[in-house]
Structure to design on (226 residues):
C-alpha cells in the first residue's frame, strides 16, 4: 500500500498557485518524497523530488516540513493544462532490488477557468 | 529532451491471442519497468528488469507474461494468451540507477475482446 495520504480532489483557479498537500507520517530517514502527475490516462510524468530541503524546478516547488511528516507541492501559476491526478510517493534512495513505485489514488486537481 | 516511447499506442486483440507491447527506453538507462492501469484504477507495478533478467515481479505478472530486451534499444512485454481482464493501459518506464527517477512512456492501450 501507498505510504502517503492525499486529499482525493482539489480545485484551483487558473493563474493562482495550486498547493497540493501530502502526509507521510511514517517516512524513514532514507526515503525521498517524489511527485508525479498523470494527465488523462497518459503516462505518469515526473515533477520533482526531495529528501529534506525544499526544492524548486521549472515545473513546481516542493516544501517539506522540518519533521518530514508532510509536504506540499506548489504549482505557482496553474493553467488548464495542469488539470491532472497528482501522486505523492515515498521511495527509498540507493541501490536495492525493491525499486518499484507504489502509486496511491493521488489528488485529482481541477484548474477552473 | 530524451523520452521513453511505446508502440503501438492502441492495440485491439481477440481473447486468447498473443500480444507484444514495445518500448524504447531512454538511451543511457539500464533499469526497465512495466506498469499497467486498468480503467479507473491505480497504476500497478508489473515487473522490473536489469542486466537481462527480471529483478522483481508482482503477483499480476504470471506465466502468461514475459519480458525481453531483444536488442540494445527495445524492451518488450509479451502476453501469451490474452484474457478480457488484461484490457488496460500498459506503461513502460526506465531509470538510470534503480532508485532514481523513473521516466514513463505514453502507454499502450490494450483492449481484449
Amino acid at each position: 500500500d501507498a505510504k502517503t495520504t492525499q486529499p482525493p480532489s482539489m480545485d484551483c483557479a487558473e493563474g493562482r498557485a495550486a498547493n497540493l498537500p501530502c502526509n507521510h507520517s511514517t517516512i524513514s530517514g532514507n526515503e525521498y518524497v517524489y511527485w508525479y502527475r498523470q494527465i488523462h490516462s497518459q503516462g505518469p510524468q515526473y515533477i520533482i523530488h526531495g529528501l529534506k530541503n525544499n526544492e524548486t524546478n521549472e515545473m513546481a516547488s516542493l516544501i517539506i516540513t522540518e519533521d518530514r511528516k508532510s509536504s506540499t507541492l506548489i504549482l505557482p501559476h496553474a493553467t488548464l493544462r495542469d488539470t491532472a491526478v497528482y501522486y505523492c510517493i515515498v521511495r527509498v534512495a540507493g541501490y536495492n532490488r525493491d525499486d518499484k513505485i507504489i502509486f496511491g489514488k493521488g489528488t485529482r486537481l481541477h484548474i477552473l477557468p | 529532451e530524451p523520452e521513453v516511447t511505446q508502440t503501438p499506442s492502441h492495440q485491439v486483440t481477440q481473447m486468447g491471442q498473443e500480444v507484444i507491447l514495445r518500448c524504447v527506453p531512454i538511451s543511457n538507462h539500464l533499469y526497465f519497468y512495466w506498469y499497467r492501469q486498468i480503467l479507473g484504477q491505480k497504476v500497478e507495478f508489473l515487473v522490473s528488469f536489469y542486466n537481462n533478467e527480471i529483478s522483481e515481479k508482482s503477483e499480476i505478472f504470471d506465466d502468461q507474461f514475459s519480458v525481453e530486451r531483444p536488442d540494445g534499444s527495445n524492451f518488450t512485454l509479451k502476453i501469451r494468451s490474452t484474457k478480457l481482464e488484461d484490457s488496460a493501459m500498459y506503461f513502460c518506464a526506465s531509470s538510470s540507477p534503480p532508485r532514481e527517477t523513473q521516466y514513463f512512456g505514453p502507454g499502450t492501450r490494450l483492449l481484449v475482446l
Notes: The first strand of chain B starts at residue 5 and ends at 7. Chain B has a mean pLDDT of 93.
